[in-house]
Amino acid sequence: MVRDYNNRHALDQKLRGTPKPVNADHLEVGHWQAIATVLAQVGLEAAVQRALSSTPELSLRYCGPGEWLVVSEVDTPIGLMRRLDMLCGTQAHVVDQSDGRVLMRLSGPCARRVLAKGVGVDLHPGAFALGGSTNVLCGHIAINLARTGEDIFELIVSRSFAESLFDDLMTMGRAFDLSAAFSD
Amino acid sequence: MASLITCPHCGVRPKEEFAIRGDASLIRPAPTASDEAWHDYVYVRANPRGRTLEHWHHVAGCRRFLVVERDTVTHEVYSAVDGVVAAREAQR
Amino acid sequence: MTAYRLSSGGLADRSKALSFTFDGRPLRGFAGDTLASALLANDQLLVGRSFKYHRPRGIVSAGPSEPNALVTLGSGVRSDPNTKATVVELYAGLTAKSQNRWPSLGFDVGAVNGLLSPFLGAGFYYKTFMWPRQLWEKLYEPVIRRAAGLGRAVLERDPESYEKSWAFCDLLVVGGGPAGLMAALMAGRAGLRVILADEDFRLGGSLLSETETVDGASAPAFAERIVAELQSLENVTLLSRTTVFGWYDDNVFGAVERVQKHVAEPSAKLPTERVWRIAAKRALLATGAEERPLVFGGNDRPGVMMAGAIGTYAHRHGVSAGKSVAIFTSGSSGYRTARGLSAKGVTVSAIIDSRPEASDAAPDGVRVIRSGAIVDTKGRQRLSGIVVERSGFEELVACDALGMSGGWSPVVHLACQRGARPVWSDALKAFAAPDVGDTLRVVGAANGVYTLAGCLRDGAETATAMAAELGFNAAAAPLPVTETEADPSFAALWYVPGAKSKAFVDFQNDVHAKDLGLALREGFGHVEHAKRYTTSGMATDQGKLSNINAVGILAGMRGVSPAEVGTTTFRPFYTPVSFGALAGTARDSHATPTRKSPLHEWAKKHGATFVDSGLWFRSAWFPRAGEKTWRESVDREVLNVRANVGLCDVSTLGKIEVFGPDAAEFLNRLYCNAMLKLPVGKARYGLMLREDGFVFDDGTVSRLSDDHFFVTTTTAMAGAVMSHMDYCAQVLWPDLKVRFCSSSDQWAQMAIAGPKAREVLQQLVDEDISETAFPFLSARAMALRGGINARLFRISFSGELAFELAVPAGYGEAVADQIMEAGRAHNVCAYGVEALNVLRLEKGLLTHAEFDGRVTPDDAGLGRMFSAQKPDFIGKHLSARYGLTAADRMQLVGLKPVDKDKDIRAGAHLLKEGMKPSTLNDQGWVSSAGYSPVLGHHIALAFLKSGRERYGEKVVVWDKLRDHEVIAEVCDPVFVDPQNTKLKA
Ligand SMILES: [Zn+2]
């Protein structure tokens, strides 16, 4: 018995079906990207950060001291694990989270106002700059939030919470006609 | 309480992101310490009026235990430092 | 034009007529009206009945301090009780009903109140509670409930929607009057992030009813110009219809925005109300001042209003409160109001000034009665005259409205919500805001500055100074030019002597001056006692108008300064906020998040019945055609696992990856059993204790490589265990080189259990998983055919030959499908947590039903796991104390009903046969129970005193809550396959 297994996205039920129009404020759900947790060995945090930052394909999301989520749009999960093992060697421990995390990209002129309904962190560009990322609470759900553009935010959430977060975001965005779709 | 805590790793955060664990001045006794020492460590709390040190776990953020020094009367927060830093200092 | 609408003037848009109803009566107002101004225009002065005495009550104020004009808006599920007509923005289709009257507003049975009055004096509740209980239940409570009370709460589900939002700013300005607007303007121009919140639907505050000009324009036009400039500034957010209700620690403010309270048909895209949590670096209170009512006989007659409110209705709304208005004043403000009314063509019948002398100018032809005191009022449902006493002579002055002006009290509520008390100021004859530091300052009338020019300057200058403190440079700008005016002076007049009828202090709670006297005489003269004793200031308006007079009267009676009496405590909320708004979106399915397993869709496909388990949705059982009860399904699933094979979703277990050279040492200190020498490729059952020696959680530890462990926790304790590990690693043992993170969501994990489990699973993997190659407690990474990186564990929670297979979550469903296909020939079935529970119960395996926080490893029969040789681990020291090692502790046992047809229920207590149920006789309790399809009768796990010595004994299983009693035999807790022959097959 040998077969290819299908990978089912956590929001498959929510976003399956005919595409709806994309509005100015839009929630794009990343279909396939590789995500991994990198835990620097105690004392080697700075070295690991340097190593990770040297690769432009990798996007680093700060979680806490010596801990990052690394996002790659170009690698497969296994590819990312290999790449990180090579980059970090024994300086860090790497855990594949590609199936355990869901990435959502919220963009549009009202993105900040949508997020303000759940996130108790000042998202003014002066306080949360482009390239910044951090773990925050969005409503009742812990997420990692990154600013990847003036009006673009990326949210990474644990898979089991993805549907709830998605529902919350659509409610938070209802005044702005927030649309949602898989990126493809 | 406080409405906002400035996490040394994450910046200003609402209290909802934290779980308070209680007295941060306790030091876990050696395994061979007296029953009294262990009893005090596990059960006895001072409940001070005024300045106090507490562990605030940044559960929804960096997941670090912060040592928060605050006033139980005025609710003023004097400082919030990383628990590992504080623990290493205490061991010295 | 309606009876009391002035022919011209005001800000109401007379081209936009709006229809509304009051008590079913169709009425018309204009856009820009409040409900109160429209009611006044329609000669509907009487709007309610008082709380205790059912006296007719009319509109008193023109703002949020209104004590009387409480109405119910809307009807059915949308009805909104206790709404202040004075702040309700009129809209087409509004329906309002008066409250607390029966059978009608005009004729109220309760008003025949000579009957009730003696019962309802001050201290009534306290005294009555002393009386025989029967009297309270049978007489007083029903009478009071019928007669007293305000609007009725709606019991149906609230159809409105709400939301919350965070906001961050450099400067929050509370109040959009002259001081607030100038402050926001200066700060906004300087580049600060400014939020200006005002509870009115139109910004401008007192400027909207001001008669003076500013910069050569009318005051409302000036306000409009400033608002327009503020709107053009990107860094300024204007929140009208927004009440800042609370000031919290770290300068966080709570505010409620009435987004759609003023529309008949709300949009589904918007909330009805929005609660803002505003974190402000600095805040300015520009909340104005409240005019003081005067306490004189008959002062609650409809038509007696605040003088300033009469001015507001005339100037802002173009509505006259009466045809002939008298003014009762203790200061110059009353004269100013009179002049404004006179200029509007409203007849002012007289000014009664309590002061013997004053230099204030009355309007031409208006009589001034100095040293005058009103001692009574005439009229039924509207004022018809006032009885004025002067030098011992009484005189009746005809009027149909009376304006009271007893001076001014700064509105300092918010500044006092964090513990600081307001400070009595002899100069202001009022309580002023305390100094609460740099982060919050008070400006304008709230700061005791009562002239227009003063307010504009105070706002501008304070905001400029605060901008500088925050490092912003505010360019100097000339202040707006105003007409010259005198700072209004007044004499404090707490109580007008000689009252001929009740002189009310608190209109809403029907507290009159004599009640306060009674309180003092009976020993409740402290302001906090007097408040509770008389209920003064305890109604929905929280005494916004009345408290100051209550303090003044207490001070007078005690012969001390109001400073010595002090005020009662200020707390959020400034005005009432609906529960819906405070809940925001966190209700129904949004109340808490729902977690879904990666195998959720797979389970759904197989017809699972789901059960809430914490935040999780777990598959409970999988009914098949013909099965009528859940028990039938569960029995079938259990028997099939024992005979063939089953697949169960266990993805909800907590999963933690632990790394580092000290990982083994770390785990060795976390668990009470030994972990240091766990071989690579092996799993071990682990028991964690709390520091007090009781079991905290259990799970498995698998060593995947030398410095990489995979830890599982129970579903319920996943978060708590992770936090505990954080604490241990960071606080207790910061020098251990260990790192860990959760991988709970990365893996779909399934248990494949039953004698055929290996045959089924072997079809998916190339590696040999035979008993020799992959024996019990093996654990390692393994690729599935087709290239999926999986982890396979030989562990069992059923006593059967079993594996747990973890695959990346997205593949969970496909792999589960594959297992079902591979198992079809072996009669594989899906089984849920109910069957899982029966399977473990039959094997005497434990869950948090047993580990309830009072159980030691030895109690649970796991004493052998306690590794006393280890130098230290969490819980070691206190495990040795006497209470935890006593011989008569309750120990885990099994129970079988003697009569095999009887059931045993979890939660029941155990008694020796023939003993009375009592705490002393309590022998233990049943922790888990269920029907064993294998044995064909109920079984249970229980904790029983010295239980392991009592196998064979009969005990009474006593469940008083469900009135259930059964005799059971104590036995070994392992009911099925005690030799573990199936497990290691
Ligand atoms: Zn943090």
Q: Could you please describe the fold and organization of this structure?
A:
The complex is a heterotrimer of chains A (184), B (92) and C (985). Chain A is built from five helices and ten strands, in the order H-E-E-H-E-E-H-E-E-H-E-E-E-H-E. With 184 residues, chain A is of the alpha+beta class. Chain A has a six-stranded mixed beta sheet with strand order 7-8-9-6-1-10. A four-stranded antiparallel beta sheet of chain A has the order 3-4-2-5, with helices on one face. The mean pLDDT of chain A is 94. With 92 residues, chain B is an alpha+beta fold. Chain B has a single domain (4-91), classed as Folate-binding fold (2-Layer Sandwich). Chain B has a four-stranded antiparallel beta sheet. In chain B, strands 1-2 form a two-stranded antiparallel ribbon. Chain C is built from 22 helices and 50 strands. In chain C, the strands form 13 sheets. In chain C, strands 8, 9, 12, 13, 14, 15 and 28 form a seven-stranded mixed beta sheet that branches. The radius of gyration of chain C is 38 Å and the shape is elongated. The mean pLDDT of chain C is 93. Chains A and C meet through strand 2, strand 5 and helix 5 of A and strand 8, strand 31, strand 39 and helix 19 of C. Zinc ion binds at residues 7, 9-10, 58, 61-62, 64 of chain B.
Secondary-structure topology with pairs:
The complex is a heterotrimer of chains A (184), B (92) and C (985).
Chain A: H1 12-15, E1 26-29, E2 34-40, H2 45-53, E3 58-64, E4 67-72, H3 77-88, E5 92-96, E6 101-107, H4 111-116, E7 133-138, E8 141-149, E9 152-158, H5 162-172, E10 179-182
Parallel strand pairs in A: 1-10
Antiparallel strand pairs in A: 1-6, 2-4, 2-5, 3-4, 6-9, 7-8, 8-9
Chain B: E1 4-7, E2 11-14, E3 19-23, H1 35-43, E4 51-57, E5 65-71, E6 77-82, H2 83-91
Chain C: E1 13-22, E2 25-31, H1 35-41, E3 46-49, E4 56-58, E5 70-73, E6 80-84, E7 94-98, H2 124-130, H3 133-147, E8 162-174, H4 178-189, E9 194-197, E10 213-214, E11 217-218, H5 219-232, E12 236-239, E13 242-248, E14 252-258, E15 273-285, E16 289-291, E17 304-306, H6 307-315, E18 324-329, H7 332-343, E19 347-353, E20 367-370, E21 373-379, E22 383-390, E23 393-398, E24 401-405, E25 408-410, E26 423-425, E27 430-432, E28 440-442, H8 452-469, E29 504-506, E30 511-512, H9 513-521, H10 527-534, H11 547-558, H12 562-565, H13 579-583, E31 595-596, H14 600-605, E32 609-613, E33 616-621, H15 630-643, E34 646-649, E35 654-659, H16 663-670, E36 683-689, E37 695-705, E38 708-713, H17 718-732, E39 739-742, E40 747-753, H18 757-762, E41 779-784, E42 788-793, E43 802-808, H19 812-822, E44 829-830, H20 833-842, H21 876-879, H22 882-885, E45 890-897, E46 909-912, E47 924-932, E48 937-945, E49 954-959, E50 964-971
Parallel strand pairs in C: 1-7, 8-9, 8-15, 9-12, 15-28, 17-24, 18-19, 18-24, 19-20, 31-33, 34-44
Antiparallel strand pairs in C: 1-2, 3-4, 5-6, 5-7, 10-11, 13-14, 14-15, 16-25, 21-22, 22-23, 26-27, 29-30, 32-33, 34-40, 35-38, 35-39, 36-37, 37-38, 40-43, 41-42, 42-43, 45-48, 45-50, 46-47, 46-49, 47-48, 49-50
The structure holds zinc ion (ZN).
